[in-house]
Design goal:
The complex is a heterodimer of chains A (295) and B (274).
Chain A: H1 3-39, H2 56-62, H3 65-98, H4 101-112, H5 119-129, H6 138-145, H7 158-183, H8 187-195, H9 200-228, H10 232-237, H11 249-259, H12 263-294
Helix pairs in contact in A: 3-4, 3-7, 3-9, 3-11, 7-9, 9-12, 11-12
Chain B: H1 2-33, H2 37-40, H3 54-62, H4 65-96, H5 102-111, H6 121-130, H7 137-141, H8 148-159, H9 163-171, H10 176-184, H11 189-205, H12 208-213, H13 222-233, H14 237-257, H15 259-269
Helix pairs in contact in B: 1-14, 3-14, 4-8, 4-11, 9-10, 11-15, 13-14
The chains are: A mainly alpha (295), B mainly alpha (274).
Keywords (chain A): Cell membrane, Membrane, Transmembrane, Transmembrane helix, Transport
Family (chain A): Belongs to the binding-protein-dependent transport system permease family.
Subcellular location (chain A): Cell membrane
Chain lengths: 295, 274
């Protein structure tokens, strides 16, 4: 077989093999991506044609008080979840990795299990736990504040408690990544440090923390992106209320598109979220990398 | 030595208590689901001292749970199968074959990671509506077929297979498809299982997209369907918890059976191991 013929056959096989993925990808991912961009410059309803309005949707966004509320709430939620969940996951991972055999497997299972649950199961369970009349957590809340609190209907409690539910649900993933990271740290480093008389505290800050940093940075970045996409828990627990205290960007996109029939405006909101996530994740990843290198 | 052992035992005990507190909401849901509605509003003992299955039989006979199971199983299985087959073929071409546009394709796949999928939902919904697929299995399935991580993970694993093995098959007259399905795939059953598990779990648990594209109760998947019952029951805690646990049952059991694979899959998909 000539070389040219072989190359042709190789190319034909390649195109046949990428064709299914590429066509699905183009039709259901690339096309919608371009479509969102295009829609954001129109006054289209959800279904149907609209007129080109240039930057009008974006101009409207700049004056939309609710949009600022949404962004603020998104950032508040990020502050409530990203670092706390990473710290909790790190504590759990460090503890679990000290256990051995079956005990370790059991404890890890218990911490990881919530992660595999569907979000609506998670919110149903927590709505029951926090139930104003019969929730098992209300006596606890009453001892702290003096009276029961309808947490998802209270403007001060709603975001922190959605954060608690979210951390409970998604923390197992972070624990797993950090445990994998801890296992990759060579054991002889600790032995050498122990011989030199290093305290556990020193061992953590001199060995574990710097060597684990790439994974910690990964966890922080993944969490940041994940938590900015908050929608399900808010929709299911508080519908964005009370007084818009848990209204977030995707909630607003959903309402504009599917309840108010503003496809164009909703697309502009989606574009802002899109840019937000791209910029923040690139930025955060770079920052974390630089800090990691200095150590 | 005994002091050290005592310290270790105490440490294990503390961690076990912490884990028990962590899993308490799930235990409490189970306990609640096994009680009568009357008891729940009168007595809040935490022990699981009653085994009353009436909430379960009531939920199974009055809700559309069986149909939602069917919808969830069908859509999740189809999504997993298509994602794996298209992903592995694409990864094979990217890893082993030379063709124009290869680098661009790889960059696009990697870059697509950064796109927050919910930002596309408005456009995807318009597309599904144009294709007349709203309220259908395919409407649920099609936008969920884009899982770039499958391509990337397969490519890494295919890259690691020695070239000599491929030359041997080529000399025997085998083509590229033979190579993929007779050599590269069998060498990677482990990773295939892992990728299948994470794809399946995320399809099964997806709430936002099926919630948008399905409005008829008969087409709902489990995570969406159970939120409907929620409103219909009114105050009925035992039934709500029974419903939640019936909905979560398959993933919980699946996780407990394939525990090691799930853990492995999560790590591989995040690029930590592999």
């Amino acid at each position: 077989m000539s070389l040219a013929k072989r190359r042709r056959r190789e190319m034909r096989a390649a195109f046949l093999m990428i064709a299914p993925f590429v066509s699905v990808f183009a039709l259901f991912f690339l096309y919608p991506t371009l479509k969102v961009v295009a829609l954001s410059f129109t006054d289209a309803p959800l279904i149907g044609e609209g007129n080109w309005v240039g930057l009008a949707n974006y101009a409207k966004l700049l004056g939309d008080r609710l949009f600022y509320t949404s962004i603020t709430n998104n950032l508040y939620f990020v502050a409530l979840t990203v670092v706390p969940t990473t710290v909790i996951a790190l504590l759990i991972a460090l503890s679990v990795s000290r256990l051995k055999g079956r005990m370790q497997a059991l404890v890890l299972t218990l911490f990881f299990l919530p992660y595999v649950l569907p979000v609506s199961v998670v919110t149903m369970i927590w709505a029951w736990m926090f139930d104003f009349q019969f929730g098992i957590l209300q006596p606890l809340i009453a001892t702290i504040t003096g009276k029961p609190v309808p947490v998802f209907k209270n403007p001060h409690w709603v975001m922190p408690m959605i954060a608690v539910v979210t951390i409970w649900w998604t923390n197992g993933f972070n624990v797993l990544l950090l445990i994998a990271g801890l296992r990759n740290i060579p054991a002889d480093l600790y032995e050498a440090a122990a011989l030199d008389g290093a305290t556990p505290w020193q061992r953590f800050w001199r060995i574990t923390w710097p060597l684990l940093w790439p994974i910690t940075a990964l966890v922080l970045t993944l969490q940041l992106i994940l938590q900015l996409k908050l929608f399900d828990q808010v929709y299911l627990l508080s519908k964005g209320g009370p007084f818009n205290q848990s209204y977030v960007v995707l909630m607003q996109m959903y309402r504009e598109a599917f309840q108010l029939n503003h496809g164009g405006y909703a697309s502009a909101i989606a574009m802002v979220l899109f840019l937000f996530i791209v910029v923040l994740s690139v930025l955060q990843f770079q920052l974390l990398r630089i800090r990691g290198m200095r150590k | 030595m005994t002091a050290k052992r005592a310290r270790n035992a105490a440490f294990s005990g503390i961690i076990l208590i912490a884990a028990a507190i962590w899993i308490f909401p799930l235990y409490w849901a189970l306990t609640t689901s096994l009680r009568s509605e009357n008891r729940i509003v009168s007595d809040a003992g935490v022990l699981m001292d009653e085994l009353n299955f009436s909430a379960y039989t009531s939920v199974l006979s009055t809700s559309k749970l069986p149909i939602w199971y069917l919808n969830s199983v069908a859509t999740s299985v189809i999504i997993t199968a298509i994602v794996l087959i298209t992903g592995m073929m694409c990864a094979y071409a990217l890893s082993q074959l030379r063709f124009p546009g290869r680098k661009v394709l790889y960059l696009v796949v990697v870059g697509s990671f950064m796109v927050p999928v919910p930002a596309l939902y408005v456009a995807q919904f318009v597309l599904m509506s144009d294709l007349r697929l709203v309220n259908s299995w395919w409407g649920i399935i099609l936008p969920q077929l884009i899982v770039p991580v499958v391509v990337i993970v397969y490519k890494q694993f295919f890259d690691a297979i020695p070239k000599e093995m491929r030359e041997a098959v080529l000399l025997d007259g085998g083509g590229e498809f033979t190579l993929l399905f007779k050599l590269y795939l069998p060498l990677n059953w482990g990773i295939t299982a892992a990728l299948a598990i994470i794809t399946f779990i995320s399809a099964w648990n997806n709430f936002f997209w099926p919630f948008l594209v399905v409005t008829s109760e008969d087409m709902m998947t489990i995570p969406v369907g159970i939120t409907q019952v929620n409103d219909a029951f009114g105050v009925a805690y035992a039934r709500m918890m029974a419903l939640a646990l019936l909905a979560a049952g398959p993933v919980i059991v699946g996780y407990l059976i394939f525990q090691k694979r799930v853990t492995e899959a999560v790590m591989i998909s995040a690029g930590v191991k592999g």
